[in-house]
Amino acid sequence: MLKKSFFLFGTTAMLVSCAGGGAEQLASPDGNVQLSFELSKDGTPTYSVKFDDEEIIKPSTLGFILKDAAPMTSGFKVEKITRESGDETWAPVWGENDSIRDHYNGMTVQLTQQAGDTLRKLDIQFRVYDDGAAFRYIFPDQETKTFVIADELSQMAMGGDYTAWWIPGDYDTQEYEYTKSKLSEISSYAEKGKIENVSQTGFSPTGVQTSLMLKTPSGKYVNLHEAALVDYPAMHLNLDESNLTFTSWLTPSPDGTKATIDVPFKTPWRVVMLGEKATDILATNIIYNLNEPNALEDTSWIHPTKYMGVWWEMITGKSQWSYTDAENFDLATFDYSKAKPHGKHGANTANVKRYIDFAADNGFDELLIEGWNVGWEDWFGKEKDYVFDFVTPYPDFDIKELNDYAHKKGIKLMMHHETSGSIPNYEKHMDKAYDLMNQYGYDAVKSGYVGSILPKGENHYSQSSVRHYLNAIKKAADKKIMVNAHEAVRPTGLARTYPNLVGNESAMGTEYRNMSAAHETILPFTRLKGGPMDFTPGIFRMDIGSFVPGSNEHKKATVANQLGLYMTMYSPLQMAADLPEHYAEKMDAFQFIKDVPVDWSETRYIDAEPGEFIIVARKDKKSPNWFAGGITNEQARDTELKLDFLQPGKKYMATIYADAPDADYLKNPEAYVITKKEVTSADTLPIHMAQGGGFAISFFEE
Ligand code: NOJ
Ligand code: CA
Q1: Would you call 442 exposed, middle or buried from its count of C-beta atoms within 10 A (0-12, 13-18, 19+)?
Q2: Mean pLDDT across the chain
């Protein structure tokens, strides 16, 4: 393809254009992405984006509605336009690649607006990359010191009736399955009740969450998300079906306003990722590039982590988080020594030791234990303020002995803090909770925000909740603690700045055992664009009833699919979620989970289509070894995997973990075959993926 010419700006040079008149153009370094900015006649800021000459975002307006003040939507004047460009390469603390190039052309439009006697200032900063475009608002220091934002009105007018993979708007959860439909069909799903729980919190039936994956009729891939969500509510997108235009829809605060900001202030970036191929969207690093560099001086204590957990046995109902059957009590006065244990408490010292033995024997770094602390009898759906103290173990959980035992065996325990949505209670106890972790040698916490957020009226994604999640991450960093937050706001690349944020959930993970097989082929295009997910793969026993009496649950996946997920769902924090006894039955397949790294020097997305399949190869950061893997939806697939990613001239021993010819995610999910073969970069391997299946391959250099 011919690259268009473009103006080359020095990496540090700032060019100042004259204000007024005509559209200002901003092209990506390769010229293929072109952004145009213009003030309409009435002074409304307007932009559009083209990719390969196709209008992806049609002229769209920008601005704000303020509480009790004139809107910041029109009547603007351009004071000055400054241009810049950047080209630098940075090394993430952990990641899919050991270096990331941040290469863009930028333009900041400085606007003023006369509101009565007050002159308001608003800058709009644009950046254009070879694989996308972004903008954010900057409120410079000015006469008005505080702005109360009733609504942000950032439009993204779609260039056509794109295909979308979407989840409905919701201020509290992203735990939905994706729907694939045309943009023009989104509202019909809500109306026909095809989607359960749409608009749990009263959100518009045409509202969707980001990251939103789209495909144009011409076959281009587009993705809308935000980057660097700090001190501001999370953004949804609300569609006007009459003109296929999205407008930002921020999560409200209890008083109905969206955000209160003190100048100077920068909003998160609004981002459009662009690709010729689906794999371009998987590979783009725009979201991380738009976040600030690492803010932590010492990162030596942050380590990629493979872990097991006393967890799946609770999720499946084999054991319980709680210790007794008591209910409706005050944690401050409840006397556990007088309560009768129900006998199904999973986090008891003997059971935890059994897990420590297995995890340590098989080279894991950590073991998560849920239900170790008092309060689990009386938390779910209770909306209690004081629900956990995060420091008092149950009588049958010997915190000192278990940590000592684990450390002697070379692994760490992972802490668990379920806040039950009571953010005020967690903030009150957080210092002591982290201190307890330091005291016993825990260096990672899985936190959770199940239930309605307190104080009442707050939402999971509102400005004050967003502040809390980052506050918890920063405080944890001060105490050298890594964070894996469940049910917190979906990530927006902040792990670049705070690399101790090693994981989030913020989507349906393995605990929803009945997802369609397409779900995991969509997540890397959507949820994972903001950062890694604690997806908790590695289920080897699909028939839950085979070990939980009375359960008729079946995990809809093959064993090879579960192995493939360690490759397709990148995360520096990966769990082997099933029970030790289930791995012990299939130690040959478990070998892949033992071998697979969680930190990479290089990643090559080989082929993919959202909702259908993903195939990827990655090189270990610490060795010359390569790994490959893939997953498919409910459709079986056969393909040829070219091994040209391997280093030429070297020989590798490939171990191929594949679906058996008769494997099927519903009827025969545990059938797999493992073969070994010596290969070089000149070879090609035939790959078969069963319905709901996948594959995984390790390539050890010889
Ligand atoms: C929901 C989390 O996603 C799950 O992993 C956890 O076990 C429960 N909450 C209890 O905290
Ligand atoms: Ca969850």
Answers
A1: buried
A2: 94
Q: Which of 379, 508, 511 to mutate to test the pocket of ligand 1 (most atoms within 8 A of CB)?
A: 511
Mapping DSSP to helix (H, G, I), strand (E, B) and coil, where does residue 14 land? coil
- The residue-averaged pLDDT of 467-471 equals 98
- Whole-number Å distance, alpha carbon 486 to ligand 2 midpoint, is 6
* Ligand 2 centroid, distance to 531 Cα (angstroms): 16
Query: How does pLDDT run across 396-442, given as a tens digit for each residue?
Result: 999 999 999 999 999 999 999 999 999 999 999 999 999 999 999 99
Q: Residue 315: nearest ligand to its CA?
A: 1
CB 230 within 8 A of CB 197: no
Rounded-to-integer distance, Cα 386 and Cα 268, Å: 33
Residue of 382, 390, 486 to mutate, ligand 1, most atoms within 8 A of C-beta: 486
* Catalytic residue positions, numbered: 511
Residues of the chain by 3-state class (helix, strand, coil), percent to 5:
20, 35, 45
Closest residue (by CA) to atom 6 of ligand 1? 448
Whether 8 has a pLDDT exceeding 50, the answer reads: no
**pLDDT at residue 13, as a whole number:** 35
Positive or negative torsion for Cα 400, 404, 407, 409: negative
Ligand 1: residues with CB < 6 A are 311, 370, 418, 448, 450, 486, 505, 511
Helix H or strand E encompassing 434: helix 423-440
**How confident is the model over 314-334, as pLDDT tens digits?**
999 999 999 999 999 999 999
Q: Ligand 1 atom closest to Cα of 321?
A: 10
If pLDDT is split at 50, 70 and 90, which confidence band does 199 have?
very low
**Residue 336: pLDDT over 90:** yes
Ligand nearest to the backbone CA of 314: 1
Question: Which atom from ligand 1 is nearest to the alpha carbon of 487?
Answer: 3
State the greatest distance between any 2 C-alpha atoms of the chain, in Å, as a whole number.
79
Ligand number, closest to the Cα atom of 421: 1
Q: Where do the DSSP E strands lie in 388-512?
A: 412-418, 444-448, 482-486, 501-504
CA distance 581 to 568: 26
Mutate to test the pocket of ligand 1, among 319, 322, 370 (most ligand atoms within 8 A of CB): 370
Q: Residue 396, class by beta-carbon neighbours within 10 Å (0-12 exposed, 13-18 middle, 19+ buried)?
A: middle
Contacts of residue 392, defined as CB under 8 A and 6 or more positions apart, other chains included, come to 373, 374
Looking only at the bridges linking them, the beta strands covering 613-620 and 33-39 are unpaired
Q: How far is it, in rounded angstroms, from Cα 276 to Cα 31?
A: 14
Atom 3 of ligand 1: nearest residue by CA position: 486
Q: Which atom of ligand 1 is nearest the CA belonging to 509?
A: 3
Asked if residue 238 has pLDDT above 80, the reply is yes
How far apart are alpha carbons 534 and 414 in whole angstroms? Answer: 14
> Cα(570) to centroid of ligand 2, in Å?
18
Residue 348 reports pLDDT greater than 90: yes
Alpha-carbon torsion 305, 311, 315, 316, what sign? positive
Q: Give the pLDDT of residue 2.
A: 32
Span 611-628, average pLDDT: 98
| pLDDT the model gives residue 304 | 97
Calpha distance 168→245 (Å, rounded): 16
pLDDT-derived band at 557, boundaries 50, 70, 90: very high
User: Ligand 1: distance of its center to the CA of 368 in Å?
Assistant: 12
